[in-house]
Amino acid sequence: MRKTSAAILSLVLSSLLPTAYGQFGGGYAPPQPPSPPPTETPAVPVPPIVPAQTAPAEPTEEEIRKYQEENPDAVQKPANPKAAEPKPVAPVDPKIEQAKRIECQAPEKSWVAKLDPADQKALEEGLGYALPPMTANAKWVGSTATKSAPNLEGNVVIIQSIDVGNTAPAIIDRILAALGTMPADETVIVIGLQVPNKLDLAKKRLEKSVAKGNFCIDEDGQWCDALGVYKKPVNLVVDRNGAIRYVGLNEKGAAAAAKLLQAEPKKIVEVAQKPVAKAAAPAMAKDAVFPTFTEPLNSCADLRGKSSPPLTVQTWLTQEPNMQGKLVIVDFFATWCGPCMAARPHMNEIAKQYASTIAVVGLSDESKSNFEDGLKKKNLKEKDFNYAIALDPAGVMKKGFGVRGIPNIAIISSDGIVRWQGHPNSLDAAVLDPLVAANAKLSAPDEKTVGKSGSSGRGWSK
Questions:
Q1: Opening angle at CA 295, ends 292 and 298, nearest 5
Q2: Which end of the chain is less packed: N or C, by CB atoms within 10 Å?
C-alpha cells in the first residue's frame, strides 16, 4: 500500500514540476538565489532580401519615338539614351600666334619717297596683309638672276616696280648697293617687277641686262593690281612671315627697312590675306543718255552709235595714257598735213582742260623715221604735244573708220561706242560737255561696291 501511494505521488509531482524533475531526476530542487535580469543585446537588423538586379535594356527607336510624342515639352531625353561621344578637340599649338592683320610702324621720314597720293593710298591698302601670291601671267626672266621663282618663305623681300620701256632697271642695283654685304646666314631677296608696258621690249632688255637681282614681268597686270602697283616706280618690303610691312620708300629707305626686318626674331604668325574687293556692277545704258549728232560726214564712214574698231598701236612715242573710265578722242593726223598741225594748239588746250575726263590720242600712220623728220621740219618735238602720240604705220584703226581725209576726229565713250566724228575745229564745249557728263554716269562705280582694281579705281587688268 505504501509502495503504491509513493509511486502515485511521484507521478503527480513530475507532471507539476517538469523542469525540476528533469534536472534532478525527481525530488525538489534546492533553493537558488534570484538571478539578475538578463542583459539585453540590441537586435541586429537583417537586410531584406533583394532580388538580383539586371541591367536595363537599351531603349528601342520605337520607345524613344513614343516617349518624344508623349512628352513634347521634355527637356531631357528618355532614360538611359545612348550618350553622344564628345568630339575630340584639336590641340592648339602654342607657338602659332593668330593674327588678322599685322600692325605696322610708320617708316622713318628719311626713308619715304615722294609719291602721288593715289599711288600711296593703293599701296597702303595692303599694309599688314600677306603678300598676294603671284598670278599665272607673272613670268620670271633674266640672265643674271634665277629664271625660276626664288624661295621667298622665311626671307625678307623687297619688290621694286620698274618699267624698262621708259627707265633702266639699274634701280635694282642701287637697292642692292644700299643693302651692302649681308652675312652668310641672312638673305634679302630683291625683285624687279616689270609692269605690263611695252612687254616685248621689256623682255628683250631684261634678258640681256647684267643688272643683279630677280626680275619678273607681269604680262597682264593682275599681280601689280593685287600689290597696288601702277605706272610710277614704287616698292614694298615684306617681312619673314610674308607680311607687307613697308611701302613707298626710296632706295636707301627700302634697304634700311629690310635690314630692320631681318634683325627681328622670326615668329610663326598666320597673316591674313587682303580682302578681295567686289567688282562694280556694270552701269545700265539707260542711266547714261548720250547726245546724238547728225551732221553729215564727208571724209569717213559714219560709225556714230556703233562699236569702235580697236585702238591699234605699233609704237607709243609718249607715255600710253590711262583711258579707263574716260572718253577717248582719237585724232587721225600726220606731220605732213598742214591743217593737222594747225589744229595742234586747239587739241593741246582740250587735253589740258579735260585731263581728268578725256584721254586724247594723236594717231599717225607714218613710219617713225618719217614722223621724226616731219617734226623736225616743223621745229617740233614730242613734248610739244600735251597728249599721247602713237604710230600705226599699217593704219589699222584708220581703215576701220574708213578715213579718207585728215585731220579726222573720233570720240569713243568708255563702253566702246563711237559718239562723235568730225573735224577738230568743230570740237568745242557744246560738243564735249554733254558727252563728258553722259560718260561720267556710264563710268561711275556703284556706291555699294568698288572697282575690281581696288578703291582707287586704277589698275592694269580690265
A1: 130
A2: N
Grid coordinates belonging to 240 = 619673314
Indicate the burial class of 130 (C-beta count within 10 angstroms; 0-12, 13-18, 19 or more).
buried
d(CA 307, CA 314): 22
Residues in the chain: 462
Query: In a 10 Å sphere around its CB, with 0-12 CB exposed, 13-18 middle and 19+ buried, how is residue 287 labelled?
Result: exposed
Span 155-203, pLDDT tens digits: 999 999 998 866 667 888 899 999 988 776 678 999 999 999 888 888 8
For 247-268, the pLDDT digits (tens) are: 999 999 999 999 999 988 877 7
DSSP 417: B
Look at the pTM and tell me if it is higher than 0.90.
no
Residue 201 CA: distances (Å) to CA of 165, 204, 225, 290? 6, 5, 21, 39
Nearest-CA neighbor of 274 among 169, 440, 168, 126? 126
User: DSSP string spanning 138-177?
Assistant: EEEE-SSS-SS----TTSEEEEEEE-TTTS-THHHHHHHH
**Domains of the chain (ranges plus CATH)?**
98-270 (3.40.30.10), 285-443 (3.40.30.10)
